[in-house]
Specification:
Elements lengths: L1 H10 L26 E3 L3 H13 L4 E3 L8 H11 L2 E4 L5 H17 L6 E8 L9 H13 L5 E4 L10 E8 L6 E7 L4 E7 L4 H14 L6 E4 H9 L1
Parallel strand pairs: 1-2, 2-3, 3-9, 4-6, 5-6
Antiparallel strand pairs: 4-7, 7-8
Helix pairs in contact: 1-6, 2-3, 4-5
């Protein structure tokens, strides 16, 4: 993602003043104090430290790492103390964020028709560190908020017979798949499925760049998500 972010940012006319990566410098020394905004794609065990670094400098930071959300309160405290801003998303792809909205609407439409059960699945490359994906978790949150007859989620393998109030969401790790997320509604007569398939990681980078541009377009403090960006775009 770092390599792709570099390409996308340069194409959009931005200057990269600092690269913080123990395995790659790109000829650019780590000078975080020179940056107007940080973009962070690392690992769950390093994300919080990077947020703290940006916050200590009073800089906004866009975080695309997933799997660290149990530390969101600590991140918020650091951001508040530094008078900084944080924009995080489980997935920065514009298509995925529009898919969230479509999925939430679909869940609400299907809710009164209890002959339609709901479930879903996600597929990613076999190097992905977290399972289920952050995108799947965000998608399920939307569905549960909109589909009142689904009360909870079971991740991974189903324990057997599934209660009508349970949403089953499965994960598969294989090869080099960038990401597939699907939501399925099924009844004895037919099946409705909506799905988002990423063709490459460029879409994630383009969305993160858009988020960074939005974050510094005016003085912002606090924690934001891609929903805030889309609210501006969609009015």
């Amino acid at each position: 993602m770092g390599k792709i972010m570099e390409k996308v940012l340069l194409e959009r006319g931005h200057e990269i003043v600092s690269v913080i990566d123990p395995f790659e410098t790109c000829g650019i020394p780590p000078r975080p104090e020179k940056a107007d905004v940080f973009i962070e794609f690392t690992r769950p065990d390093t994300a919080l430290d990077n947020i703290r670094l940006a916050a200590s400098l009073g800089r906004p930071i866009v975080v695309g790492t997933t799997g660290w959300y149990d530390k969101i309160a600590e991140a918020g405290a650091a951001v508040e103390a530094g008078g900084a801003s944080l924009l995080w998303a489980a997935n920065f792809s514009l298509g995925v964020n529009l898919f969230y909205r479509i999925a939430g609407y679909a869940a609400a439409v299907m809710d009164p028709f209890d002959q339609y059960d709901a479930a879903g699945y996600e597929v990613h490359h076999n190097k992905k560190a977290d399972s289920p994906s952050g995108t799947a978790k965000a998608l399920v949150e939307r569905v549960l908020a909109s589909m009142k007859r689904k009360k909870t989620v079971v991740w991974g393998s189903s324990p057997g017979k599934t209660d009508p109030g349970v949403l089953h969401y499965a994960s598969l790790r294989v090869g080099s798949v960038p990401g597939i997320h699907s939501l399925v509604f099924d009844c004895p007569f037919d099946t409705i499925e909506i799905s988002h398939s990423a063709r490459s990681r460029d879409g994630f980078a383009a969305g993160a760049a858009l988020a960074a541009e939005w974050l510094i377009s005016k003085k912002r403090r606090g924690i934001f998500t891609m929903d805030d960006v889309l609210k501006d775009v969609l009015g």
